[in-house]
Amino acid sequence: MAAYILPFEKPLLAIQNKIEELRRFSAEQGLTTSHDVAQLEAQLDETRRDLYAQLTPWQKVMVARHPRRPYTRDYITAFVDDFNELHGDRLLSDDHSIVGGLGWIKGRRVMIIGTQKGRDTKSNLDCNFGCPFPEGYRKALRLMRLAAKFSIPILTLIDTPGAFPGIEGEQRHVAEAIAVNLREMFRLPVPILAVVIGEGGSGGALGIGVANRILILEYAYYSVISPEGCAAILWKNRARADKAADALKLTAPDLLELGLVDAIIPEPPGGAHTDPPAIAAQVRDAILKQLDLLAKLSPAQVLEQRYSKFRAMGVFKEGSVPALTPPPIPEDTRP
Question: How many domains does the chain have?
Answer without folding.
Answer: 2
